[in-house]
Design a protein that fits this description.
Elements lengths: L1 H7 L3 H29 L7 H31 L1 H12 L1 H32 L1 H28 L1
Helix pairs in contact: 2-3, 5-6
Length: about 150
Amino acid sequence: MLIREIVSGKSKIEERIKLRNLYCAFMMILGVVSICVGIYVPLDSGNAEYSSGFYVGLGCGVTIAAMLTIIKNLRLLKNQEALQERDIYESDERNRLLGLKSWSYAGYAMFILLYIAMLFAGAINVVVMNTLLVTLGIFALCLFISKTMLKMIM
């Protein structure tokens, strides 16, 4: 690893940050697509004005957040001290464990809340219940696939 770092001149944290910038660029494209949908695509629903505003607002928010993240990351790449501090922060075992537990608890809460919402939605609207059911199924499928892949990797 040290030899690769010396030869390439890039550390792992630099590669991760550049990958994050690529992800943010993709999110900016999605944000612009959302803005275009809100402005140019005629929405023939009863609440077209609300939907248009929603798409434009969502697109602006995603685009601005992605731009700010890219700017932050580019500044980080230029400052070696801050880059080393970030590397230490991200590789710290305690912080990694906190992140894993947070995602785990959020996943459990999401699974339970989706199930409860699905139970109540069945009495109100079948379409909403089916949407929640599909969301719950996709969430469970993602959980199963990620667990299976992690078992193969680790």
